[in-house]
Design a protein that fits this description.
By secondary structure, this protein is of the alpha+beta class. The chain is 38% helix and 14% strand. The protein has a four-stranded antiparallel sheet, with no helix packed on it. A three-stranded antiparallel sheet has the order 1-2-5, with no helix packed on it.
């Protein structure tokens, strides 16, 4: 009967808004009839999980079923804490509830809470330890690349809030592959699940259009065709390709000694890696260029210069066994810019490389998700110490707070490129007009490998103090600004390139797993040697 109504409704010529109302009424009809006849539908497959300061409830929900959520703290009566038509509800209780057992009821709207048919679910919140906190943040953030991945391609969606939901990102997918591997090791799901996800990604990468081996920045997951990042950027993006390959090579090492299917996957990854024409992107010169388009050629002519997030591009280019770049390209392109050498002291911290005050913190994250900065040195700097200084400058700036922004401090710091409650996506970093009071959790949290005490203090603050507004289904929302009015302070979005570093760097802090895997690729050491890097033992 239901299918009959839907099929025939679609045949009628009517305005979309009228048709949508009719659909809503039809969806609601089963619920209304159930309540009117004294019957109702309880949620199925209910799962209730406790964390240090919040509880997450999830269930299988039917469309248009509205549920009220009731909570009873120890020794207290049930009180309503929210309602939803979703299949998920996060109840943020606060740090004082850590270790306590809490009860819940999920009640169909309009039904009496006292109805004896309504089941009660009890859950004990975990202890408020830093280990539990880090595991929780990593677990939730990894969901972005596992639960929220594009279902057809396995690729990471560019962001959670997008008018075009089929856009997938290559660089963000590279970060996501590393997060997926760490998630399997943490038993968030099985290794076979991580294999299936990566296998799906590789299958897409083998079929989509490439540009002398490089992938585009974005793709339309439905068509498999490149989706223009900007007017002339509709072709190969060598930097995003490098971020992707960093993840692929990490996966290659992870699955290298696995089952026959996993070994086959490693061979397919090798084929992708060895067909990237890194040297072609020099255009026959001593420079390495970021973009090439079959429609616009070298029109953008954007040299890849440092110090910034792009260093991994040169490391991989030099490491390529098939299409390598020469050291002279690295010396005359990356190292020749107004923001390569620095040498100044900011807040007592000497910064060897980078722009004023170091720039946004993603410079210390993207290239170093797989490339281990510990002991990595060259004639210019010790990269771990350089990156640590960069993070400490951000921390000191937040404490100093020269512009007197609301909310800055020793436990609320970190500036990078992210969404922004004021202006949309933009870069934030000290000493610029773009530093407008917006803090991006990914900046401080992903710096945990460099500044563990300060990063953990920030993570505690983001979760325990601000979690009621800042915590969602995939972890911390992208950014917040406490100078905005209530209700506008938080950008309720997630970005793949901000989510990835959180999950990956937390794992590197906890175990060093992803550094170990990437650095064990035999080609990488040869590439580092070629460019003049040395690795000194810690």
């Amino acid at each position: 009967m239901w299918n009959f109504f839907v099929i025939h409704l679609k045949k009628y010529e009517m305005k979309p808004e009228v048709r949508n109302i009719m659909f809503l009424l039809l969806w609601s009809l089963p619920v209304c009839c159930s309540i009117a006849t004294g019957k109702y539908v309880l949620p199925e497959k209910v799962k209730v999980e406790g964390y240090p300061a919040h509880v997450e409830l999830s269930w299988h929900n039917q469309p248009a079923f509205n549920y009220e959520i009731y909570r009873a703290l120890p020794g207290k009566s049930f009180v309503k804490c929210g309602e939803t038509q979703s299949d998920n509800f996060i109840d943020f209780i606060g740090k004082s509830s850590a270790g306590k057992t809490v009860a819940y009821k999920i009640v169909p709207k309009g039904i009496d809470l006292a109805d004896k048919k309504i089941p009660e679910y009890k859950v004990t919140l975990t202890a408020a330890t830093d280990e539990n906190l880090l595991d929780m943040v990593q677990r939730y953030t990894t969901r972005y690349f596992y639960d929220f991945a594009d279902p057809t391609t396995g690729m990471a969606r560019e962001r959670s809030m997008d008018s075009n939901g089929t856009i997938v990102t290559t660089g963000g997918t590279g970060f996501g592959i590393m997060a997926l591997i760490a998630g399997a090791e943490r038993n968030y799901y099985g290794k076979i699940d991580a294999y299936r996800s990566v296998d799906k990604i590789v299958s897409f990468l083998e079929k989509c259009e490439r540009f002398h081996g490089a992938w585009a920045h974005w793709y339309d997951a439905t068509s498999g065709k490149p989706f223009s990042f900007s007017k002339y950027d509709d072709g190969g993006d060598l930097v995003e390709t490098a971020f992707l390959v960093q993840g692929l090579l990490t996966a290659r090492e992870y699955f290298r000694n696995g089952s026959s299917e996993e070994r086959l996957l490693t061979n397919r990854i090798t084929q992708l890696w060895e067909t990237v024409e890194w040297n072609w992107y020099t255009d026959g010169s001593d420079s390495l260029y970021w973009h090439w388009s079959k429609n616009y050629g070298w029109k953008m002519k954007h040299r890849i210069q440092g110090f910034d997030e792009t260093m991994i591009t040169y490391v991989l280019g030099a490491s390529s066994p098939t299409f390598p770049i020469d050291k002279k390209v690295y010396d005359s392109s990356y190292k020749i810019s107004s923001y390569y050498k620095n040498g100044k002291i900011y807040y007592g911290h000497k910064l060897d490389l980078g722009m004023e005050m170091g720039g946004p913190l993603f410079f210390t994250h993207y290239s170093f998700l797989g490339l281990n900065p510990h002991g990595l040195t060259d004639e210019s700097t010790n990269y771990f110490e350089r990156n640590k200084a960069h993070a400490l400058i951000h921390l000191a700036y937040a404490i100093d707070n020269p512009k007197k922004h609301v909310g800055y401090g020793a436990d609320s710091w970190g500036f990078t490129s992210s969404d922004d409650p004021l202006v949309g996506y933009t870069s934030h970093h000290p000493g610029t007009n773009d530093e407008n009071g917006t803090i991006s959790p990914t900046a401080a949290v992903s710096s945990v490998v460099y500044t563990p005490e300060a990063s953990l203090a920030a993570t505690r603050h983001f979760y325990y103090d601000l979690g009621g507004k800042l915590w969602g289904r995939y972890g911390f929302y992208d950014a917040y600004n406490l100078e905005m009015t209530e209700g506008q302070q938080v950008v309720h979005s997630y970005l793949a390139i901000d989510q990835g570093p959180i999950a990956v760097m937390i794992e590197n802090y906890r175990s060093g797993l992803l550094w170990k895997l990437f650095m064990s690729n035999p080609e990488i050491q040869a590439g580092l040697d070629k460019l003049g890097f040395t690795i000194k033992s810690r």
